[in-house]
Amino acid sequence: MLGVILNVITVIVGSCIGLLLKKGIPERVSKAVMIGLGACTLYIGITGSLCGENTLVLIASVVLGVIIGTLLNIDGAINKLASKIEGRFKKEGKSVSIAEGLISATLLFCVGSMTVTGSISAGITGDNSVLITKAMLDLVSSMMLASSLGVGVLLSAVSVLVIQGGLVLLAGVISPFMNASAINEMTCAGSLLIIMIGTNLMGITKIKVADFLPAILIAPIISNLIPLFQRLV
Fold it and tell me: What is the pLDDT of residues 57-81, one digit of tens each?
């Protein structure tokens, strides 16, 4: 768990630095940074989405995922939770909510091959090198994100602890199912959500990204079921 703990610490430290920097940034500059951050997020999402190997897996994952997410009202639940503390941190005239910062940062920090392979490697072999490298990258990323998206980025440290920590603890159980193909499909689905975040940050769309979150879990499941189905046919 050393790599996970270090990653959580770097997100907290980076977020705190970003929040301090945020106080001295004029609003017009902050808006410009938000657009730039959105463009960078789009690039990250597009790059990750190219990892997908089967378009049908992506389509099925996204469709099933948003159906489940909408029925469960995941976005509403997250926003309801965030609203309980939002009044304490959100200043009048600010357009970014805690929920938006939390969801955006969680996806950027927890989606991708480094998260999965690094956590599984740490859980099975005790090798934390991938997670330590990721932690250093997240230190810089959290600084930039928090300076624009606010305290929600700081709260994403909890998501990093739960998701990566869970993967480390369950590494022995999930490793047989998280082959290269499954990881690629999960990364592709998650990256599509990151693209949605990018368009939201740029003010182009107002997508309830949280309702699409189940797609990330469904993608590797479908990827593992396809070979079984092919053998049966």
Answer: 999 999 999 999 999 999 998 888 7
Alpha-carbon torsion (194, 39, 9, 81), positive or negative? negative
Token pair for residue 34? Answer: 């938000």
Rg (CA), the chain: 18
pLDDT in tens, 77-98: 888 877 776 666 555 555 567 8
- The whole-angstrom separation of Cα 72 and Cα 133 is 35
Q: Does residue 105 have a pLDDT over 80? A: yes
Measured between alpha carbons, how far is 50 from 71 in angstroms, rounded to an integer?
29
Which residue type occupies 145? L
Whether 61 and 192 have beta carbons less than 8 Å apart is answered as no
Number of domains forming the structure of the chain:
1
What is the CB neighbour count within 10 angstroms for residue 147? 24
- For 116, the token pair is 């999965």
Q: Which amino acid is at 95?
A: S
Instruction: Please give the residue range of the domain that contains residue 51.
Output: 2-21+30-232
